[in-house]
Amino acid sequence: MRIAYLINQYPKVSHSFIRREILALERQGLEVQRIALRGWDAEVHDSEDASERDKTRYVLRRGIKGLLAPAWQVLRAHPGRFCQALWLALRLGWRADRAWPYHLAYLAEACQVLQWLRAGAAQHVHAHFGTNSTEVVMLANLLGGPAYSFTVHGPEEFDKPQFLHLGEKVRRAAFVAAVSSYGRSQLFRWVAHAHWAKVKVVHCGLERSFHDVPAVAVPVAPRLLCVGRLCEQKGQLLLLEAARLLAGRSIAFELVLAGDGEMREQIEALVARYGLHRQVRITGWVGSAQVREEILAARALVLPSFAEGLPVVIMEAMALRRPVLTTYVAGIPELVQAGENGWLFPAGAVDELAAAMADCLAQPAHVLQRMGEAARQRVLQRHDIDSEAARLAGYFEASA
């Protein structure tokens, strides 16, 4: 079967799970055409990402002017369909998160995507995230393209479903994949019961390089690791508040923040203000191999997120036999079990976060090792990439 993937930006450091999914589908025997809106000039830190970039066609590589010719060609060939898609684009621009000129641009992008889908003989097209990428494949479908589906991750789709017209996208889709049962429940809120059956749970999966890493002993160093974009929803500022509490109690610890982002300066300023420069280290952007090394060098992963879908880095840490300290929001409690393979605490609760960190740091190595083994077993049962890709391939075939 020939399918296509449309992604807003590809490859991307924080979207390695999409690459894993595509490669796993190809192992299932599917042919996958990669299309992205942007990303041809992005810096990549992984050799597999560099390889994927060479396989990807980019819609906006020639700018918006490069889309005028495809739009004109589709208008001439299918004026009726083009007018239907134009009306839908204008309607989607009403009370949306972006003004209607953006939605006209999405229509032009859909015209280019339509031509590439036809040239590649794609039987189905799949998008990740229920934002503009899904709108483009929905418009391409209305223009005469193949059936489409999309994966909803959250939290953006859950924060503004009406402004993203999420219900419209679900109703027109062949099926929709949610990465957790929680995500599925949120989609149920925005469509009639008649459409519930098309909402499937397909977990993000881990590649075998995470499964096959030999066990590494829990380090003696009292090191905790936080991996993620430095942004408000990941809760790094709250993590520094908790770190200050630990330092005030003379608890020895190291805290590594692996990632970069728009809040880096603010985080660095807070580290300096609280005098935590000896305890806190910020790595900047890191590739998959370095993330793996940082996880193995830590006693546990700590992720105090305020909003999430189901973070892939939690799966990665658990597969590497490290327990997780995190909040019970969205799909996280479906994977992390308090007392068994990690700690759960309320989002935004600095005292509970500090208590969980202190408890983890106080545990002997054999306890953390036992929790890490339990974490590994649970994540391998639920998040094997080849099993999840086989499930997804079955939905693709059914839609075609």
Folded structure, characterized:
There is one protein chain. The protein is of the alpha/beta class and 400 residues long. The chain has helices at residues 16-27, 47-54, 68-77, 79-92, 100-119, 132-142, 156-159, 166-172, 181-188, 208-211, 236-248, 264-273, 288-296, 312-319, 350-362, 365-382, 385-399, and strands at 2-9, 31-38, 56-58, 124-128, 147-152, 175-178, 199-201, 223-227, 254-258, 280-284, 300-303, 324-327, 342-345. The protein has a seven-stranded parallel β-sheet with strand order 3-2-1-4-5-6-7, sandwiched between helices. A six-stranded parallel β-sheet has the order 10-9-8-11-12-13, sandwiched between helices.
* Alpha carbon gyration radius: 22 Å
In CATH, the architecture of the largest domain is 3-Layer(aba) Sandwich
Look at the structure and name the CATH superfamily of the largest domain: Glycogen Phosphorylase B
Low-confidence stretches: none
N-to-C span: 9 Å
Overall residue-averaged pLDDT value: 95
Helix/strand order: EHEHEHHHEHEHHEHEHEHEHEHEHEEHHH
Work out the strand percent: 15-25%
Number of H/I helices? 17
CATH topology of the largest domain, by name, is Rossmann fold
Question: Helix proportion of residues, in percent?
Answer: 40-55%
